[in-house]
Specification:
By secondary structure, the protein is an alpha/beta fold. It has 17 helices and 15 strands.
Length: about 475
């Protein structure tokens, strides 16, 4: 028998690129039972598991992996649910390579255990076998908590608070719960039926979800508290797109990634039977180098674009997107223009985009983020022909809530100022976490913020009871 250290990591089977670029079905196929068990036995079951420390929601990683190795798949799923209400989502979109897998002992001299793949397997196994069970809840506390936003932070906070015995109501501005999981991440990376299944699980815990309810407009945070909520958690995300601020940005054919992906994902514009309109370009240029840029480019390809180019002002090594997402984009034929930045958008007589003028960049001294700052190269301008441009250079928090809640202290970017460990804001009983506090970050970081805030809210409610 080979030792655990000798067994190579089992990569997840995936659909071939020539097939997958024609539709929006999921790319990775998932582990079989046999592959999952073989990968699980690679885990060394460390006494002090560094992988848990690398997980923002502190999943009991060695424990659930051991159960998979023993073939006890439903028990593995239950073990995951002790710490997260969204395991099928985490297993698909979390950057495990920079978190739990990065701190895996096996990574020091080889390949880490495929923690994300195993998490996905256990969650999918439970769902496909129709045996999803809610974890035990504590007795009702009599307290009510309002959650603003049904994205990763809000859903996580809701699940934790419901398990603690509190009445939880989520208020979501859009017509379906999920936040960025529904409107931002494409179907081929995160099937929406999986998001809906995870949301449905929260409902089995007693969480109530009210959609089409933008807090800050329909009602303010103060009004929610006046109506009887004992605490409020704001996890409204960062949905305000940033733009390039170059001439021609108002031409027809320039879209923010938010609008483009929302139309395609949440409103199903990729479905021929959907009434949702969306621009379809023959030649598409996407600006940015993160996961949203990869999602936009790969979506454009599936929408029928003949040529898709990602324009990024740094080099390949500096791409902030996940390694797997970059790899998939390259496999699918997405082109990359590195060390390049747009300076002007060119249009025809009808003000429709026809090209983008760019300038070559070189990397200079590190900036505040620690990455080398891109510097324009004089006289290096050139043009890229394109009839659709997608801007994916980041998002800012929508200031709607802070503008309608005077007691909430806002950041310079329009988000909410909150303690990063507890989520406590300047307003007693109001907590916040996720992108509304930090700016655009990862799904798992938002989940971690929601979980930490849930525990802080529980402590706050206990203190109210004692008082």
């Amino acid at each position: 028998m080979p030792t655990k250290k000798m067994i190579s990591r089992h990569e997840m089977p995936q659909r071939p690129e020539h097939e997958r670029i024609k539709d929006f079905r999921e790319v990775p196929k998932g582990y079989t039972e046999e592959l999952a068990r073989e990968e699980a036995i690679r885990c060394l079951q460390c006494r002090k598991p560094a992988c848990v420390e690398g997980c923002p929601v502190c999943i009991k990683i060695p424990e659930f992996i051991a159960l998979i190795g023993q073939g006890r798949f439903l028990e593995a799923a239950a073990k995951l649910k002790e710490e997260t209400a969204l395991p099928a989502i985490c297993g698909r979109v979390c950057p495990q390579e920079t978190q739990c897998e990065k701190t895996c002992v096996l990574a020091k001299k080889g390949q880490p255990v495929a923690i994300g793949h195993l998490e996905r397997f256990a969650a999918d196994y439970e769902r496909s076998h129709g045996e999803a069970k809610a974890v035990e809840k504590r007795a009702s506390t009599g307290f009510s908590v309002a959650i603003v936003g049904a994205g990763p932070a809000g859903l996580t906070a809701a699940g934790e608070l419901a398990k603690m015995g509190h009445r939880v109501v989520i208020f979501e501005a859009l017509h379906e719960a999920g936040g960025v999981l529904m409107y931002g991440i494409p179907e081929f990376r995160l099937p929406k039926d999986i998001v809906r299944a995870e949301v449905q699980y929260l409902k089995t815990l007693g969480v109530e979800i009210i959609t089409d309810f933008p807090v800050g407009k329909a009602k303010s945070v103060e009004e929610l508290m006046a109506e009887g909520f004992d605490a409020v958690f704001v996890g409204a995300g960062a949905g305000l797109p940033r733009f390039l601020n170059v001439p021609g940005e108002n031409f027809i054919g320039v879209l923010s990634a938010n609008e483009y992906l929302t139309r395609v994902n949440l409103m199903r514009a990729y479905d021929p039977e959907s009434p949702t309109p969306v621009l379809k370009g023959d030649r598409v240029a996407v600006f940015g180098g993160g996961n949203v840029a990869m999602d936009s480019a790969r979506t454009a390809l599936r929408m029928g674009s003949r040529e898709v180019t990602i324009v990024y002002r740094r080099g390949h090594a500096e791409l902030p997107a996940r390694v797997d997402e970059v790899k998939h984009a390259e496999e699918e034929g997405i082109k990359f223009e590195f060390l390049s930045a747009p300076v002007e958008i060119l249009g025809d007589e009808n003000k429709r985009v026809k090209a983008v003028k760019c300038i070559r960049m070189e990397l200079g001294e590190p900036d505040a983020s620690g990455r080398r700052r891109p510097v324009p190269v004089p006289g290096s301008q050139y043009s890229i022909a394109a009839d659709l441009l997608v801007v994916a250079i980041g998002n800012s928090p929508n200031p709607l809530i802070t503008k309608t809640t005077a007691a909430l202290k806002a950041t310079r970017e329009g988000g909410i100022e909150a303690d990063l460990q507890t989520g406590a804001t300047s307003m007693p009983g109001v907590y916040a976490g996720g992108d509304i506090v930090t700016g655009a970050a990862t799904v798992i970081e938002a989940m971690g913020a929601g979980k930490r805030a849930a525990y802080a809210i529980n402590d706050y409610l206990k203190s109210k009871k004692r008082a």
